[in-house]
Every structure is written in structure tokens, then in C-alpha cells.
Design a protein that fits this description.
This protein is mainly alpha-helical. The chain has one domain. The chain contains three helices and no strands. The model has no long low-confidence stretch (mean pLDDT about 90). This is 2-dehydro-3-deoxyphosphogluconate aldolase / (4S)-4-hydroxy-2-oxoglutarate aldolase. It comes from Nonomuraea marmarensis.
Length: about 60
């Protein structure tokens, strides 16, 4: 399926600001990875991860 009626799920480099823009433009979902997780996956600060999660949820 192609064209303007195709479901769109952007991924890669999607942070809070981009997620809001993509959803407003009609995306059915967004894939938020590295901008959200940051260094937490490699043993970085989990408390900073919690802040990023909270900020994303509040923005949406």
C-alpha cells in the first residue's frame, strides 16, 4: 500500500518534539529509541531515563 492513506510509523532519531510533529502530521505511532533511552542501556543513569520518559509522556 502506498500513497497518502498508508499507515506511517517513523523511527530513528525520534525524540519528544519529533514525536509530537509526526503524530500531528498523521503518523499512527512513533518509534522512540535512542533519544529516550540515552546511555541507560549501557549502564548509564536510570534516573535520567525516568526524567526523559516523564518528559515524553507529558509532551504527548
Amino acid at each position: 500500500m502506498t500513497g497518502q492513506n498508508s499507515p506511517f510509523v517513523p523511527v530513528g532519531g525520534v525524540g519528544a518534539a519529533e514525536a509530537i510533529d509526526y503524530l500531528a502530521a498523521g503518523a499512527v505511532a512513533v518509534g522512540v529509541g535512542s533519544p529516550l533511552v540515552g546511555a541507560a542501556a549501557a549502564g548509564g543513569s536510570v534516573s535520567e531515563l525516568r526524567v526523559r520518559i516523564r518528559n515524553l509522556l507529558e509532551a504527548l
